[in-house]
Amino acid sequence: MQKSKTTVISAAENERQARFMDTAAAQSAAFSAENGRPPRAFVRTFGCQMNEHDSEKISGMLSCMGYSFCDSFEDADLVVLNTCCVRENAEEKVFGHLGALKALKRARPGLITVVCGCMTEQPHVVDDIKSKYRNVDLVFGTHNLHRFPELLAGVLSEGKRVYEISRTGNEVAEGVPLLREGRIHAWVTIMYGCDNYCTYCIVPYVRGRERSRRPDDIIAEIRQLDDEGFSEITLLGQNVNSYGKDLEGSPDFASLLTRICSETKIRRIRFMTSHPKDLSPRLIDVMASNPKICSQLHLPVQSGSTRLLKRMNRKYTREDYLATIKLVKEKMPGIALSTDIIVGFPGETEEDFEDTLTLLEEVRCDQAFTFIYSPRTGTPAAAYDGRVPDDVIKNRFERLLAVQNRISREINDTFLGRTVNVLCEGPSKTDPSKFTGRTEGNKIVNFTCADNPCGKFVDVEITGIQTWSLEGRA
Ligand code: 5AD
Ligand code: SF4
Predict the structure, then answer these.
(1) pTM of the full predicted structure?
(2) What is the pLDDT of residues 159-186, one digit of tens each?
(3) Which one, of 334, 305, 339, lies nearest residue 319 by Cα?
(4) Which residue out of 342, 360, 367, 397 has the highest number of ligand 1 atoms within 8 Å of its CB and is therefore the one to mutate?
């Protein structure tokens, strides 16, 4: 099926938002004159890297609107909850915070509460907020992120409660201001949305159809990161392997990577997430032949049972996945692998689960992110029968962790005595006498170093091993 083409939101619309930002900045200046300080915002992010990056855009717009930042609800004049709805526990946390914010707002009526992100793309959540959390001033969905200045103006200038969850169609926004976390590693979105409809997953319903950014816009952003001194980027998309199908000329992900390698100076390139059904041999070749592309791959398998993969609508078999991994390892020996696994999908039998364990033993990932299945309203699997009892899920989850922790540890043990190249991200959070950084394979290394290596690539000799990190000296 031919996809409808993605377009870019007009420059005139960006200018319109810029004018709303100017007005808000004037209001912030008046606030400063009155209070001796600018208004403070606290942006709290739930969920995945895509949300982390969206929060960098929200903070970028807030910064243009004259806000400074704090890291507690108590100190804030404006709170943004950037929500996730992939699993139920993330949603529960948000409602917990909204309850606490209700009390804060009673004490401080001027407090502005904003809720955005994936949760707000679900009508039943918006209804709940409307009826039970009247302390919330502004609700907007992922499709309206670039209109945050205009929507906030409705609250600031007109004192309205604003709910905006309309969809914009096949559009992407460019040029939204960004306040990036850190100066070494940057997130770069290459596409939005997902067309895969895995039966457990809410993402296609809340993030919409796949929409790719134009290669030239992506390259321009990365060149700017070069100029600002960034060394490492992670390209983001729900399924980066289907990049470009919705663009004129259908540039694919492999060609985008090749362009980034040759047209920018960025030293390390990572990407996530890849879908096993779309990881082409051509992409594997591009990865293997470009030293700037990190020898690292996140390839969620979800289950090792072909029967369950079919029920999940993943469109590959256990054997397909293993064949892809075999090819990846042949072309990139020593590549660092990671995966996602769901435990307790409806109908999961002991035999299905054991297929997952044996797959993990065969693939030997450096890391596996394990999730207990969480039914999501509106997804097909939420109506499937075969609910797995909680005690069975718990038992399987623990067995899965035991297997993966052993494998992770065994892989890490092979690093003892080796020298690895680390991009230093700053002082270690746990031990201020040390520095922390990542290897090409994305392993965290805490290390000692005589001079200040922040932002530099350093060779580190590994002297100690933890399950989740390595220790060493420069
Ligand atoms: N329940 C549990 N885990 C889920 N994931 C996505 N949807 C669900 C769900 N309903 C997991 C998948 C995906 C990761 C980002 O979250 O493993 O790869
Ligand atoms: Fe969800 Fe599947 Fe899309 Fe990933 S590929 S976001 S799991 S629907």
Answers:
(1) 0.95
(2) 889 998 877 678 999 999 999 999 999 9
(3) 305
(4) 342
